[in-house]
Tyrosine kinase with immunoglobulin like and EGF like domains 1
Amino acid sequence: MVWLEPPLLLPIFFLASHVGAAVDLTLLADLRLTEPQRFFLTCVSGEAGAGRGSDAWGPPLLLEKDDRIVRTPRPGQPPHTARNGSSRVTVRGFSQPSDLVGVFSCVGGAGARRTRVLYVHNSPGAHLLPDKVTHTVNKGDTAVLSARVRKEKQTDVIWKSNGSYFYTLDWHEAQDGQFLLQLPNVQPSSSGIYSATYLEASPLGSAFFRLIVRGCEAGRWGQDCTKECPGCLHGGVCHDQDGECVCPPGFTGTRCEQACREGRFGQSCQEQCPGASGCRGLTFCLPDPYGCSCGSGWRGSQCQEACAPGRFGADCRLQCQCQNGGTCDRFSGCVCPSGWHGMHCEKSGLSDWDAGGASSKMKDSGRGLCGSHVSALIGPPG
């Protein structure tokens, strides 16, 4: 492992992703489809007005590859773009594996709400693979990027930051089959695309990462970082500019306290994962500072592994601590028996939902309210 001071980088404006209130914008990729001709990316907008015509939400959604940092050969033929009104755009029909490697972006919204969501795609056959593609940390934290060796080469590893040389690791410095880069006291200027590549190897064999550094220390937001975050639940991330919680796919609410029904996502749980297997195999990228993750209930490099018993949420990062006979649901957390409620089934008596306080516990998606879960499942049935 190597300790490095965070790099001093010029701002990379195309990586900025948020101005104003949180925008309901999701970029989806199906990681199970490794063949270029079958692989696709979909950008979905849940903003009010989206889907009511091309001008209802300002400029149309843009879904494109950005080659300014990760440079790969030009595609033999451009992929096909299909639109479903102004609320959804899909790109498919890539011609070769190199077309998939690199940075893709979805841009939506108008004016001050114009937002860019980024997705970084790694080749599954690369020499080095990231332990985790997106890393979101707070200002002043220590960020650790880990490149796992898939195909060993007895050559040095070059680390780059936003396309520029950053550091070299001797091949002997691998620890348990991983090359580690540790960045202490990171600052917002440290954000960007990082890569680890064997010396003189093709960029297609690199491990690509995205580092997102919030503009404030943990639990703080605002221009001077003096305001306290609301305490985002279920893996939600507090935005450093407006203090709103950016909720993981599968959760909603002011503090991400409410679970969507299985297979649903979006700020109001209004979107449905495509296909019979639900959200299995999909990665979800949301506006910064959230980044990307598997859907709720799934984990792994291809988001195909179900959570182990006792785990739940996006990437299965959360652990159930159910009390009083509650059981763990890998999509939403503790399911409480009659007479108990709360995140851990720790409260007795009627919940706000049972007592008629649904207005304070649930958010109407406009497409039907359903549910009777510990935190009230939201969204129309499957």
Notes: The chain has three domains: 13-121, 132-213, 226-382. The two ends are 46 Å apart (CA to CA). Residues 226-382 form a domain with the Tie2 ligand-binding domain fold fold (CATH 2.170.300.10).
